[in-house]
Amino acid sequence: MIVDDHPVVRDGLRGMFESAPGFRVLGEAANGVEAVERAAALDPDVVLMDLRMPGGSGVDAIRELTRRGVRAKVLVLTTYDTDSDTIPAIEAGATGYLLKDAPRDELCAAVRAAAEGRTVLSPAVASRLVSAVRAPAPGNEPLSAREREVLALVARGTSNREIARELFISEATVKTHLTHLYAKLGVNDRAAAVAVAYDRGILG
């Protein structure tokens, strides 16, 4: 089953698969909501799912199909390979993730693999997922000595300008240190950084 909000894309994919041996297109859907209903009714082996569609996103549809226990494997086929697209789609239950610039043979092989329950990822997406898995979780990465110095001064209510003067660094460097330590502590502002630092014993 093909899910995409662009009729031209759906027509192109339908024509491609119907001309390839071993494939049958059972139906189409133009958004995520329609995709869930049609997949439940048609019971396809594989759903080719676009992600960004008006009237119901692909990730929401994947999540709902997983919740309903629909047996179809979902293979994402989209233009987007950012972390904000790939990771939620995989977490929602997608079997694979390909980009729309994939060659015809690669796409056909991917659908067959998905039907067999194998995971299929485009190289770009695979490297992104590996990087995301290897990245330290917020709060687990230790602060550098300089970041601790900046944080201690922040806790005393010192302004960026005063911190720069005291540590003999530029204000821009102070801001960079703050950005890094916010990320490491999993916070968004000075007050939260100080609170978390006291809570974890970083500031004593």
UniProtKB/TrEMBL annotation:
Domain HTH luxR-type: 136-201
InterPro entries found in the cross-reference section: CheY-like_superfamily, NreC/VraR/RcsB-like_REC, Sig_transdc_resp-reg_C-effctor, Sig_transdc_resp-reg_receiver, Tscrpt_reg_LuxR_C, WalR-like
Key words of the record: DNA-binding, Phosphoprotein, Transcription, Transcription regulation
Protein name: DNA-binding response regulator
CDD domains linked: LuxR_C_like (cd06170), REC_NarL-like (cd17535)
SMART domains xrefs: HTH_LUXR, REC
GO biological process per UniProt: phosphorelay signal transduction system; regulation of DNA-templated transcription
Residue ranges constituting the Response regulatory domain according to the UniProt record: 1-115
Gene Ontology molecular function: DNA binding
Modified residues (4-aspartylphosphate): 50
